[in-house]
Amino acid sequence: MNVLTFDSNEKLNEAGANIITGLIQTNPRAVLGLATGGTPVGVYEQVVNDHKRGLVSFRGVTTFNLDEYVGLPIDHPESYHSYMNHHLFRHIDLPAAQAHIPNGNAEDPEAECRRYDELIADAGQIDLQLLGLGHNGHIGFNEPAHALIRGTHVVDLAEETLKANARFFNSIDEVPRQALTMGVGTILKAKTILLIVRGADKAEIVHRALTGPITTDCPASLLQTHPHLVVLLDQEAGRLMA
Ligand SMILES: N[C@@H]1[C@@H](O)[C@H](O)[C@@H](COP(=O)(O)O)O[C@@H]1O
């Protein structure tokens, strides 16, 4: 595991974008696993800059997002479809047919999960999986549980996750209570995992995830078993990692 701590958001964003841009420069047909939430916004901004400066083209790239809320219309401003369009897709030359996000409005969510897993399998291995970290140690929307699920599945969001994500909605009652998420098995199969964590409120959980026991109570702790894990932290999140 390679843990890097940055003293400014700019440097962290640049480092994250360099990894993504560098990968696509060496492998223009790279398969990327993408994340949402507040954490990767600045990295996407920097990737867009790289694209605008002519450093990288996404024409041959395929992307798979980690998750999507169940029942939120695709064009709702807080859907992960909207998020990805807003922060990344509409600014780059990634063909729409190569950008995949689970459909949280599928009539048959189980079938949608199987379809999503087949698409990922058809694309081969995910070269780089971007991850943020939930306050309860979740990755994607894989919440702490007695057992974790390997593939894409429907998940009931933890109370803590509803509270954390209420900041994006008018009230906690508007936060969808379920999501579709890639499973930890798929996440761990990625060639490289890039975990990004920011903020003092994540210092304890990132420390627990990366140095504590490997347990399904903290899904991110499974990342300790991954042979190519890169962790980018700001100083606040890295406070306990010295
Ligand atoms: N499903 C997402 C995760 O993919 C994200 O990494 C995490 C942290 O979010 P944030 O970056 O906003 O703190 O929780 C969200 O609910």
Sheet with most strands: strand arrangement: 1-10-9-6-2-3-5
- The average pLDDT score comes to 97
Question: Percentage of helical residues?
Answer: 25-40%
Q: Assembly type of the shown chains?
A: single chain
| Helical/strand content category | alpha/beta
**Unreliable stretches covering 5 or more consecutive residues:** none
CATH architecture: 3-Layer(aba) Sandwich
Explain the overall architecture.
It comes from Cohnella xylanilytica. Keywords: Carbohydrate metabolism, Hydrolase. It is an enzyme of class 3 (hydrolase). One of its GO terms (biological process) is carbohydrate metabolic process. The active site is at 67 (proton acceptor), 136 (for ring-opening step), 138 (proton acceptor), 143 (for ring-opening step). This protein is of the alpha/beta class and 242 residues long. The chain has a single domain, classed as 3-Layer(aba) Sandwich (Rossmann fold), CATH 3.40.50. It has helices at residues 9-26, 41-52, 80-87, 109-122, 159-165, 184-189, 203-211; strands at 2-6, 31-34, 62-65, 67-69, 99-100, 128-131, 153-156, 178-181, 192-197, 229-234. The strands form two sheets. The protein has a seven-stranded parallel beta sheet with strand order 1-10-9-6-2-3-5, with helices on one face. The protein has a three-stranded antiparallel beta sheet with strand order 4-8-7, with helices on one face. Helix 1 packs across helix 2 (41-52). The protein is globular, with a radius of gyration of 17 Å. 44% of the residues are buried. The mean pLDDT is 97. The structure holds 2-amino-2-deoxy-6-O-phosphono-alpha-D-glucopyranose. The site of 2-amino-2-deoxy-6-O-phosphono-alpha-D-glucopyranose has 14 residues, from helix 5.
